[in-house]
Design goal:
This is LysM peptidoglycan-binding domain-containing protein. The chain has 251 residues and is of the alpha+beta class. Helix 2 crosses helix 3.
Length: 251
């Protein structure tokens, strides 16, 4: 009798370690949340940061810069009941579970992973997208034509790590130089020292004419006293009051 050959063991290809990602599947994750129904269309816009400059005589030139952040938009169906085509990681979840999850992503103010995994029916990977994003906004639509099911339009934006640099500035403060008081210069050695400012407290019955006559022996020099004390006397040199302290400058 012919010996029976043992069947050869079929080699298995390593599967991508994403929960729920089987053969011939199309799966979309928002962080750890698997959307139960795959969106029919996902739009990804890679924004441009290049700058076009017009030259005076040579037309235009394009300055190439790092691409801008990617915008992602899609609409997904959130069932209120379990359908054969809907996929759940563990067990069926009502729409409220997903709506609460979207709200948490919006309020957390933290970036999260957006993952799209697509495979051929034979299990071969078609493409795999993994971006760190932020949830910019989402819109919930309740349509009577869809029964109790909801449709949610979601807008995501790519998020890039960034940091700030701290710069320490050392400010050198110059110490103020001492002020040297200059002595009045006398014309000759025998010249008398100039008279310094004096003060006078106004008495009852005083006027600037009499005060000037007292200090200068000339009442017409009252204007010298008035100019030196405008801040005390005010706009009228004829109005002075007892108790006011006046500066009597030298003439």
């Amino acid at each position: 009798m012919a010996s029976k050959k043992k069947p050869k063991k079929m080699s298995r290809k390593k599967e991508m370690t994403i929960p729920g990602a089987g053969k011939g599947g199309y799966y979309v994750y928002l962080n750890k949340c698997l959307l139960p129904v795959t969106p029919g269309k996902i739009e990804m816009k890679i924004n441009n940061s290049n700058k076009t400059i017009k030259l005076i005589n040579d037309g235009e030139i394009n300055i190439l810069k790092t691409p801008g952040l990617t915008d992602i938009d899609f609409e997904c169906e959130i069932p209120q009941q379990q359908y054969p085509y809907a996929v759940y990681k563990n067990k069926f979840q009502k729409a409220s579970y997903f709506l609460n999850y979207f709200e948490k992503l919006k309020k957390n103010k933290k970036p999260f992973q957006f993952i799209v995994c697509r495979r051929f029916p034979n299990g071969k990977k078609l493409f795999y997208t993994n971006l760190k994003v932020s949830l910019e906004e989402y819109r919930i639509t309740e349509d009577a034509g869809n029964g109790f099911d909801l449709k949610v339009k979601i807008s995501l934006k790519q998020w890039r790590n960034y940091g700030t640099k701290q710069v320490k500035l050392k400010i050198k403060v110059n110490k103020p130089q001492p002020v040297v008081k200059e002595e009045p210069i006398r014309e000759t050695v025998n010249s008398p020292e100039p008279v310094q400012n004096q003060t006078y407290t106004v008495q009852k019955g005083d006027c600037l004419w009499n005060i000037a006559k007292k200090f200068y022996n000339n009442g017409s020099l009252y204007t010298v006293i008035y100019e030196a004390n405008k801040g005390v006397i005010g706009g009228n040199p004829n109005l002075i009051y007892p108790g006011q302290v006046l500066t009597i400058p030298p003439v």
